[in-house]
């Protein structure tokens, strides 16, 4: 087979041509740029109103109804007031409507992202000297924003943060959150500009599932104190999960009976409704708004039963109406959280793109991953000026959107209008809502992630290594911290891949009788051994990290180390020469000189050709080429020929460049074969 001659591409000229093309500006190019950057300009003029509007309105209303209680609940995770979660939900839906390429994903608050934001906020509040206890009596609600109570307006030097000294706990907390969100958005936009979307490839399904499950355990742990109504400090740093549980058991005697009873009732109602909804979802036109019903009923009971005044049950407090004037995130705060924003940006982007691709494939359309990165980046940058925190696509809400007939992102605008209605008029009505009810909503929403524990046996049967990656990532995310857990998961999964390539499977092959095919003689029965020929398969790339393993496996399976055999022969010849110089015609073994030649060929060498099956060798580095040259030389010294079979073109090119076939490639046809059978036939014909 003759190789094609490829024309060499002048990369410099190609890059210059692309640069000239990208830098040129024409009206048509400007129009295309705007339509690419704002995909809504492409699909909205083609919107089929009669066909799509009912499904979009229905799904938008349902998601809006779900968003309101979730936004209020997830504010507990972020360590912020509920109003900021509502801002986040509103702006994220509007911006993604303009810039997103997915028709179905729901972008907004997400439990894991809220948790990551909350951990950074808590850490910075603690470093600034604030009390992390958020169970202080709420301020009286008059519909306007107010500062925290006196314990959290500690006057201290805030010059390091670049903001005025009158800023209290709430002001400082949202300042940290917006700075973190802005930096995460900047990272995502920069990743889009430099086309760094490939970073998501290093987050395998096992890593993402393990991270989500570990973070879910952390979320659950953080909500237990609200469930039972105890007042314990919010743990910070590594080992937060263990420390929190220790504090819970130490203070379990202080549990608020009213909160415990309320939590039990809410969990039973929510779980029952979810299970019934899952069982009869094919009969329901849209999911039951259980969270909203629970919140409305619980708020009414708490208000008219005066649960806060009589039983000291912790409530949400005043939620102001309207919008706060926009404010530029503080630059000095950005410097403090710049490192924390990186994992937040990556996780937010990966979840958004993976969900977008999943639903695009399901409904037969395409998305642009790079534009998705821009969309989610600006969903963080722009809202950060309006007192919002980081966002991402959420699987649960996206599934609800698709099940209720969503066709386009018009549904996101409808959801934003529902949130706007709450922001402008209805927010103060949630003053008496108990925090334990919000904690119940959060915990029940974790059902999907926590159910991953049931899948461990099935996952283990499919792939043990992936299961180990899941366990390590989940454990690190739960027991250390979410950011460290994500990093540990990525590093560990890469180490598993490296370990697989370092010690791949090796085998000697036998011939399937009456065929020209060969397989592993340890895995299959009734294989015929090829006389005087050994066929060795190495199922992995050959590079510097597995060179020694390749040689050891080859020597072990062929039962011959050519270096040891050559050394033994040299030693034997040296002894023979010494005997001959002394005039003794008997050898060291007591044999005649004529019989000595027989001793130079050991009995264990039962082959004269070694065929290396290279079909599984994906690439060779310099060390790999030198290793093949080394075994060729060593075995040739023992009159054993080394033949390569089934090499891919890149391996052949590496061998040519490394001089394996000599300078003029004259011996190439006698050393390289396109099938194992051809190599075996050639070896049998050799003398």
TrEMBL record:
<feature type="transmembrane region" description="Helical">
    <location>
        <begin position="374"/>
        <end position="396"/>
    </location>
</feature>
<keyword id="KW-0325">Glycoprotein</keyword>
<keyword id="KW-0812">Transmembrane</keyword>
<feature type="transmembrane region" description="Helical">
    <location>
        <begin position="52"/>
        <end position="74"/>
    </location>
</feature>
<protein>
    <recommendedName>
        <fullName>Sulfate transporter</fullName>
    </recommendedName>
</protein>
<dbReference type="GO" id="GO:0008271">
    <property type="term" value="F:secondary active sulfate transmembrane transporter activity"/>
</dbReference>
<dbReference type="Pfam" id="PF00916">
    <property type="entry name" value="Sulfate_transp"/>
</dbReference>
<feature type="transmembrane region" description="Helical">
    <location>
        <begin position="470"/>
        <end position="498"/>
    </location>
</feature>
<feature type="transmembrane region" description="Helical">
    <location>
        <begin position="171"/>
        <end position="190"/>
    </location>
</feature>
<feature type="transmembrane region" description="Helical">
    <location>
        <begin position="210"/>
        <end position="228"/>
    </location>
</feature>
<feature type="transmembrane region" description="Helical">
    <location>
        <begin position="408"/>
        <end position="426"/>
    </location>
</feature>
<dbReference type="InterPro" id="IPR002645">
    <property type="entry name" value="STAS_dom"/>
</dbReference>
<feature type="domain" description="STAS">
    <location>
        <begin position="523"/>
        <end position="683"/>
    </location>
</feature>
<keyword id="KW-1133">Transmembrane helix</keyword>
<dbReference type="InterPro" id="IPR011547">
    <property type="entry name" value="SLC26A/SulP_dom"/>
</dbReference>
<dbReference type="Pfam" id="PF01740">
    <property type="entry name" value="STAS"/>
</dbReference>
<keyword id="KW-0813">Transport</keyword>
<feature type="transmembrane region" description="Helical">
    <location>
        <begin position="333"/>
        <end position="353"/>
    </location>
</feature>
<keyword id="KW-0597">Phosphoprotein</keyword>
<keyword id="KW-0472">Membrane</keyword>
<dbReference type="InterPro" id="IPR018045">
    <property type="entry name" value="S04_transporter_CS"/>
</dbReference>
<comment type="similarity">
    <text>Belongs to the SLC26A/SulP transporter (TC 2.A.53) family.</text>
</comment>
<dbReference type="InterPro" id="IPR036513">
    <property type="entry name" value="STAS_dom_sf"/>
</dbReference>
<dbReference type="GO" id="GO:0016324">
    <property type="term" value="C:apical plasma membrane"/>
</dbReference>
<dbReference type="InterPro" id="IPR001902">
    <property type="entry name" value="SLC26A/SulP_fam"/>
</dbReference>
<keyword id="KW-1003">Cell membrane</keyword>
<feature type="transmembrane region" description="Helical">
    <location>
        <begin position="94"/>
        <end position="117"/>
    </location>
</feature>
